[in-house]
Amino acid sequence: MRFSFRRALLLAGLGFFTVSAQAQTAASLKADSLNLRKIYDEALLRGQSYDNLRYLTGTIGGRLSGSPQAEQAVQWGKTAMEKLGFDRVYLQEVMVPHWVRGAREKAEIKGAKGKGLELNVCALGGSVGTNGKLKAQVVEVKTWAELAALPDDQVRGKLVFFNRPMNPAYIETGRAYGEAGDQRRSGAVEAAKRGAVGALVRSLTLAHDDFPHTGTMRYDEKVSKIPAAALSTNGADQLSQLLKADPGLTVELEMACETLPEVKSYNVVGEIKGSKYPNEVIVVGGHLDSWDLAQGAHDDGTGCVQSIEALRLLKASGLKPERTVRAVLFMNEENGVRGGNKYAELAKAAGEKHLAAMESDGGGFTPRGFNIEAPAATVRKIQQWQPLFRPYGSTEFVAGHSGTDIEPLKDQVKALIGYDCDSQRYFDLHHTAADTFDKVNRRELELGGASMASLIYLLSKYGL
Fold first, then answer.
1. What is the CATH number of domain 39-99+261-462?
2. Which residue of the set 333, 359, 407, 446 is catalytic?
3. Does domain 102-256 match CATH 3.50.30.30?
4. Catalytic: 146?
5. Is Endoplasmic reticulum included in the keywords of this UniProt record (predicted)?
6. pLDDT for 316-328, tens place per residue?
């Protein structure tokens, strides 16, 4: 093989460019590492998430769709983002359901001797009321198969008690929640099909306590609508034990809930315009609505304040995103997903190009990483940034479910990303009266916002 001087120059040049590329990569890695440190320093030294959450939960409180508190939260979110000087802040109109709980629910076990034993219950979201007191015998089941196997006369005119617990063997509590959730969502319909007059559902939690957990349930317009209530886990265990001793006992249930006409509400949107690719959008959001039993702190006040904070951290750290970054406070995730659907609808109609969408809706606990819904090659591209997060403990970049409000964007975006934090305590508080501000740790919350801002910074800089 001939070896010319010209070829030698070419090979030398290739070597030079290889070294230069490696040097450039090392330089970029160092710059990114320093910029992430800026973000985390800003969050830990001057973070605003915790104080914003204090106001949202303490001054406004629970924010069920259609309520005056939900409207107050909309105005709070808009004002908060305007004060931070985002490039654009606006509202997206959306019609939402308006279900109201009414007077506090009551339930009492009546034994053969006539003695009453109070049960801790709450109406499931969307349930009809009892129209006074509803008294009936109870039949307990754990699976759909058990219900199907019962003769009609053992179900007709009774309260069906769905007592399937969440599986404590799962490490990821969200998996256990997902598998047990069908009885809450569909229990009333399946019970009504068999002639039952009401449904009682074991609360979806691994904790053993006296807090009943609400949550949405659904009706089928072709099936009679019967009342549906959640029992605390202690109450469910107690009722199950008493039924074994006295199968003929009755439960007296009283609920005043009802569904009112739909109400106009809004998603709240704030954005920082991209410096190089303004037409490519990265969305980060949480849901502004909550259930009405408590302050809606972990579900999902934390996600809302972290989403706002993610943009503030970029701005305060002097990092100008190359792509447009948009914070969205979605309305009506809990009982309709109207806000998430409306955002996706408007984005499609406007022909917007979404690069990625991120959601925080798993509480404000210690950061673990991110769940990514995307083609395998895209997941791997995001995973290459994992080492940058090692100093901060947010290193679990895995394929997995992202979030309910961003799911409608699935066909319009390259990656859906769910912020993931420690889940072990989340379902102790989820949808209960215990979901209050005092359960949120400042450092955990601020670290979460920094993790989200850091990944947004990388997505904005490198794209997908």
1. 3.40.630.10
2. 333
3. yes
4. no
5. yes
6. 999 999 999 999 9
